[in-house]
Design brief:
296 residues; mainly alpha
Length: 296
């Protein structure tokens, strides 16, 4: 990803290019819950391997675009801590509930982000944008309320952990958006990994999790998590430097739609009429949010 700070004004074509990159990144991140399940390691261990395999690529990207590493940006350090909590809570949520529920509930971030941007950053949203947020979140919620299949272990606990994840993901989102005002995407993500990976390793050891995958599929999933992090989360971070924070947080709600389809294919997690309706409403809310956030 380019290291130059985002321009404050974008042409319509540049804006839609940023939206396209953001949607692509969100779709790729939709694979993460599947890969965590296939890794067959502990939840925190899966987060560690995700960052560990991503950091060599991020280091090369940073060297190529920025010419060096430099001191760690303050926002990147905060984002690293927030991302650590995000991954721990989310991965444990994936262990106990369905892939769709874990992805849907952890992505209720737009409510937190929009409220924070409104109250603290004085970014007052238009009423149509608020309606779009409610539609997207409501559709995501419909996708989560009736899930079957997949051999759920403890759905209430998994749902609660996934819901708490939304809070940590919102803080990570806001820290990254603030950091992108002065730093490039790969630089921020590299430092997020350097902060988050040791914390995840420590958590995995303290919780006595299985650290090493048992087979080639597990190792492939861990490597896939790293590649997914660079391409998916990297695309999101790049687009966040070019789009309003609240708008970007709504677009990433496309993740549950991707996760629901993959959960149905791989883990027999049924998609009923309500889930289909919820997916349609979520996608409609995302499109409406983009239209509502255009310049007047």
């Amino acid at each position: 990803m380019a290291e130059a700070a985002a321009a404050p004004e974008l042409t319509p074509n540049e804006r839609w290019q940023a939206v396209a990159v953001l949607v692509m990144g969100a779709c790729i991140i939709g694979l993460s819950a599947i890969l965590v399940r296939l890794s067959h390691v502990g939840p925190a261990a899966a987060g560690f391997w995700r960052l560990a395999f991503a950091m060599p690529l991020l280091a090369l990207m940073t060297l190529r675009s920025a010419g060096g590493f430099g001191p760690p940006p303050k926002m990147a350090l905060l984002a690293g801590v927030f991302f650590f909590f995000d991954l721990v809570f989310w991965h444990y949520g994936i262990r106990y509930t369905s892939v769709t529920n874990a992805t849907v509930l952890s992505n209720l971030t737009p409510v937190v982000v929009t409220a924070f941007a409104w109250i603290f950053l004085k970014q007052r949203p238009r009423m149509l944008f608020l309606a779009a947020v409610l539609a997207a979140v409501g559709g995501a919620w419909l996708m989560a309320i009736e899930k079957g299949g997949g051999g759920l272990k403890n759905q209430p606990l998994g749902d609660l952990l996934s819901l708490i994840t939304a809070f940590w993901y919102a803080l990570y989102f806001l820290a990254m958006a603030e950091g992108r005002k002065t730093e490039g995407a790969s630089t921020l993500m590299l430092w997020v990994g350097l902060v988050g990976a040791p914390l995840l390793l420590l958590a995995a050891l303290v919780l006595r999790e299985p650290m090493l995958p048992a087979d080639a599929i597990g190792w492939g999933a861990c490597v896939g998590l790293g590649l997914m992090h660079v391409t998916g989360q990297g695309s999101i971070a790049w687009a966040m430097g070019r789009l309003p924070t609240s708008t970007a947080s709504v677009v990433v709600l496309i993740q549950p739609v991707v996760a629901a389809i993959l959960g149905w294919i791989l883990f027999a997690e049924a998609i009923g009429p309500l889930q289909g309706l919820g997916a349609a409403i979520t996608l409609g809310g995302i499109v409406l949010a983009q239209w509502a956030s255009r310049k007047r």
